[in-house]
Amino acid sequence: KNPFVIPGVKKIVIDPQLNPNLTFATFIEGECNRLARSAGMSVAVNPGNNPFNPLYIYGDSGLGKTHIVQSIGHEVRQRHPELQVLYVSMNKFQAQFQTAYKNGEIPDFIHFYQMIDVLIIDDIQELTGKTGTQNAFFNIFNHLQLSGKQLILTSDKPPVELKDIEQRLLTRFKWGLSAQLNTPDYETKLKIIRIKAQKLGAQISDDVVAYLADNISANVREIGGALSSLVANASFLGRKITTSLAKEILKVYVQL
Prior knowledge:
The protein is an alpha/beta fold. The protein has ten helices and five strands; from the N terminus they run αβαβααβαβαβαααα. It is 47% helix and 9% strand. One of its GO terms (cellular component) is plasma membrane.
């Protein structure tokens, strides 16, 4: 059975593949991500009818790329429930392409993606060296762009640094806005630590918060991991969360 064709159905409801926890409400904004966050909200308000098409968000792992693009997806669905939104990683897209190729279903595969109103592709750098997938994605990209649909892409590097991807695709990646996510600045780290501590139900003094922000020069994911480790150890050992305990427990995270 061809998974990309539903006979007799013109308008189908597609599972957007969005994580309910990754929304703008839970996204911690700071100087390090403000451009991407603001552009993302603008896209959500007027998908396909804005200067940011595609919206290309790039940065190192753990800085919130997936969170922000999924937030856009949720916001679009809330504001424009009639639109078809789909989030997919490039690895999954590639696996689907290979299955479609094996079964002789490439035209149906391309047609399926051309029906999407807001297409979110995570880790576009995984297209590297995959000529067949690049050709299929080029056809999808062109159709969506010409039809006034919205494309949102993420990558670990800007378009100019991508290797072994066709120039015609790289050119199109630059048509909209490329927004970088940077390592959290000090004020954003303070905000992240306080909010995550609150979610963990932990009381953490300002001096411990400041110590963590001063010493953890890591991404959002690692800050969360370090804080969870600190809170868990304090709970299991029956100790208060102090700077001394933080130094003792977080040696794997903190450059002392």
